[in-house]
Amino acid sequence: MRPEEYLDALLSLPGMVEPTVSPDGKWVAWSWFRVGPAADVFIAPSDGSQPPIRLTETPENTFIVSWTQDSCSLVVEEDKGGDERVQLFKVDIDKPGIMIPLTEPSPSYFIRGGQLHPEGKHLIYAANYDFDKGEEIEPAWLYLHNLEIGERKVLARPKKGHFYFPRLNSKGTHIIYSRGDLHPAGQQIWLVDIEGDEDKEILNFGDTVKVEASWHPDGDRVLFLAEHGNYRRVGVYDISSGKHHWLVDNPERNLEQVFVPYGSTQAVMVEVKEAKLSASLLDMESGLETFLPSIKGNLIPLAPVDKEHWVGLYYSSCQPTDVVRFSLNNIHPESFISLSGVWEKTVLTHEDFTPAKDYRWSSTDGLNIQGWLYEVQGAIGTVVYVHGGPTAHSEDRVAVMVQFLTSQGFNVLDPNYRGSTGFGLDFQEAIKKDGWGAKEQEDIKTGIESLINRGIAYPGKVGIMGTSYGGYSSWHAITHWEKDLVAASIPICGMTDLVIDYETTRPDLRPYSEEMMGGTPAEVPQRYLERSPINYLQNIKGKVLIVQGLRDPNVTPENVRVVREKLDNFGINYELLTFEDEGHGISKPKNLKVLLLKMVDFLKNAF
Fold first, then answer.
1. Could you tell me the pLDDT band of residue 468, with boundaries at 50, 70 and 90?
2. The last residue of a domain, from among 249, 270, 296
């Protein structure tokens, strides 16, 4: 396949996010990138009886928020150019293409979540807005929105900005949500009734301890995952008794996700070890746990279809993300039935993807670091592709940028530095010991040195790139390391001045910076100063390509404005690529094509 043909094929390869099964188990819905000018919503029957149905066809990214309780409709959200100030719509599955507005377009605030009450007249969501005063506020209040008369009733008033999604139970009587009022590192679970008469904290295991929760389908119980020392344990809270008990309390396990699907009495347990996923089903009544066998690729059960069959999410670096139907008695990829039909949407085959190889090295303090190495024969250079977060991890999964880089003759290293999930709570929390811009950057640096020492990479022929925190790491590398180690940097929506970033980001993201840095810029000014790449621009010896979405509310364009001003004052050359219709990351196919072609040309010239 010629290079231009391969690029076009990659840019039309569907990229799936947010697959979710309807309460009645008959449908599965998801959003697909790269099947049009922006992301859109699709559904397919869980029995595989017909191909996917396109529910939306829009010029802006449209994502699923929730199913209605009757399984007849979806609540979806759409913003403008990635600004994340979403409008909510209802889409009936029997009326594709018709988006019924539920909230106002282009709000001056951020909406989180969105569920229709079973009676269909009220909408639940959080918004950082005081509708009585008509002004944006720091915390996100919880609202009950009467869709018939437009009245919005405040059900809960958290005190501080916090990123959360309220969840209504199946009966429509209660809502669970999280607060971070006590400490930036902590998260507690609260319960409020639908009238807002009783708003109370139900799960608190310490000011700095995080708890995540979801409803059991019966609407009377809450399943939760709570940090405890250096691991997480799983418990159940009963809203009638106000008591909880533990289902799994094992320090040897690294559980990162638990939920009970509709139509099931079994909890899906997702465990991640060394960035490799395994799943199990836990019977909540008997305590019996069934572990799914290890297979080639990753499989996450989503919901049961019947006693034997489940709908699941299946993917790897050579397998585009697919929704599949599988049998618990025959868990082999060859027997999976594709519900999304992803391979029918592309001319690519398994052989057209470069596989991810598990790669290990030791950091400066001896900590073992894992990454994914994509290696090609006769490489013309190496690119370090740094994931964002940092509280996330790279998986054995198709990444369009990575696959295009390998097709153009570059090796790629995708490192899971300290601070990443997938390696236990101690590893995840280690980044907070010194804050951003410290030992996690040494983890990346020693990865490059390891590649050079093993003859996989060569001095002067290494570049670094990434989005969000990956963009910050790209700025750190080019401002701190020698050209032999990093000759080129492509920060995409990356922080440059951590004070500016803190002041201009969304209010619900500021606590995350406080948690990672050990305080606000006012509380620890020296640390924010020392860890901001903008204060080391004079050290740049390699090439820089700055990429930014101009509607980004997370790492705002102000980060680019201040760094450009200083680069110009120093007389340091750089290249700039901006997109008017993108936010936090570049996702639209037309823009991705521009970025990928520019990226490869930039790297080849730099090497």
1. very high
2. 249
